[in-house]
Write a structure and sequence with these properties.
A hairpin with a 4-residue loop joins strand 26 and strand 27. 14% of the residues lie in helices and 38% in strands. It has two domains: 76 residues, no CATH class; 307 residues, 7 Propeller (Methylamine Dehydrogenase, Chain H), CATH 2.130.10. About 16% of the residues have low confidence. It has five helices and 29 strands. By secondary structure, the protein is mostly beta strands. The strands form seven sheets. It has a five-stranded mixed sheet with strand order 1-28-27-26-25, with no helix packed on it. Strands 4-3-2-29 form a four-stranded antiparallel sheet, with no helix packed on it.
Length: 398
């Protein structure tokens, strides 16, 4: 029995060739058939048409995708991949909560009503809990600024190397940052700055939610280490692997996504690898759905030149990958609204932000994103002018 379960789990992790493309092809057919159906009142409803419809969908699913069941599991989550009509400017957000936008020209603050404000000549910015302050970096400088006071600097300190990857702990009492390749931690009031590890990977560390000052970071050989910053003691450490580009915790601190250029590892709170996924060359990104272990991942297809949004489960068995949305070119940023209903997706090639309603097949689009965040008269490829990251507060998205 145990071996049967292991085989079943292994088979579920296998993605059939062209499976996501098959789901993309099938969805317009299923969606069109649903829209064209004849409305039936409750009094006229009978079992025979329902059975016929169920059989028809099952046959269609089996015809267009080898595992068949993958489509059945994804239909109710899918969006069409038709290009939505885009607004020329960002006039409001579809859900409450401000955005912090790291553009190539510096960080910006965006309010729910669409009001935008540049935060000064900083290179990178990250929220404090509840957005009371923002930690910013520029060259050799680390600072905390007050967004309510037009970006007034509350404190600042200089380091010997380039400073980046600054992140505020969930309780607001600690800030981690990289000083070159050294991992350091300072208190939120700019006291007690000290070295935590002398040499680490280039990945920005990630504070574990619902924990007492525990910080995950990557070593130079791709090991993921969780350390208690107050004691400097290692809680756990994984084996070596591909050095990640980002580390993303679930909101309950029980799952950690380790995203690299060619792979995605899913770890539990004890550092145990639940499963891993190979990724094609191209843009990628991950974001947890609020209050869950489900997450959205960007998968790029070199064969079709398209980016897909795919829904996975960060559990022992990932279940069926569910196709959500697809578009030609590159997706560059992901952020989930605080109420968990909307997903912001940066569509670089179209110079657009897409707002996808996660509870219904609905998409809103806004164009001219690079220009609205300080790009001015663009010189060079759009990817260099498009915002590098977005976080939606509160709690902030990765």
């Amino acid at each position: 029995m145990s071996s049967d379960r292991e085989i079943r789990s292994a088979l579920q992790r296998i993605q059939a060739p062209d499976e996501l493309e098959a789901q993309r092809r099938a969805w317009p057919l299923v969606h069109g058939a649903f829209e064209a159906r004849e409305p039936v009142t409750p009094g006229r409803r009978s079992l025979r048409p329902l059975l016929a419809a169920a059989v028809g969908i099952a046959i269609l699913a089996a015809a267009v995708t080898p595992p068949g069941r993958a489509l059945v599991g994804s239909v109710h989550d899918a969006f069409t991949d038709e290009k939505p009509k885009a607004k020329a400017a960002l006039t409001s957000l579809p859900a409450p909560g401000p955005l912090l936008v790291n553009s190539r020209q510096g960080p910006w603050l965006v309010q729910t009503d669409g009001a935008r404000r540049a935060l000064g000549p900083w290179w990178e910015a990250s929220w404090s809990p509840q957005a009371k302050y923002i930690v910013v970096t520029r060259g050799h400088e680390l600072a905390a600024i007050d967004p309510a006071a037009k970006g007034a600097v509350r404190w600042a300190r200089s380091r010997s190397h380039a400073v980046r990857g600054a992140r505020w702990s969930p309780d607001g009492f600690r800030i981690s940052y990289l000083d070159g390749r050294e991992l350091r931690v300072v208190a939120g009031d700019n006291t007690g700055d000290g070295s935590l590890r002398r040499l680490v990977g280039a990945t920005p560390p990630a504070w574990r939610p619902e924990a007492e000052h525990e910080l995950a970071f990557s070593t130079v050989d791709g090991r993921i280490e969780l350390v208690g910053t107050d004691s400097a003691k290692t809680v756990w450490r994984t084996g070596p692997g591909e050095v990640p580009t980002s580390l993303v915790w679930s909101e309950d601190g029980k799952r950690l996504l380790v995203l690299a250029e060619r792979s995605l590892r899913v770890l539990d709170s004890n550092g145990r690898k639940l499963w891993n996924l190979g990724l094609p060359i191209g843009p990628s990104g991950v974001a947890f759905v609020r209050h869950s272990h489900r997450f959205v991942a960007i998968r790029y297809s070199t064969r079709t030149g398209r980016s897909d949004l795919v829904l996975y489960q960060a559990e022992s068995v990932p279940g069926e990958a569910r196709f959500l949305y697809s578009a030609p070119g590159d997706f560059g940023t992901l952020a989930v609204s605080p109420n968990g209903r909307w997903l912001l997706v940066g569509w670089i090639n179209a110079d657009q932000w897409l707002f996808l309603r996660l509870t219904a097949a609905k998409v809103r689009a806004v164009s001219n994103i690079a220009e609205q965040f300080g790009a001015g008269e663009r010189v060079g490829p759009l990817s260099e002018a498009f915002p590098a990251s977005v976080s939606w507060c509160c709690p902030a998205s990765p």
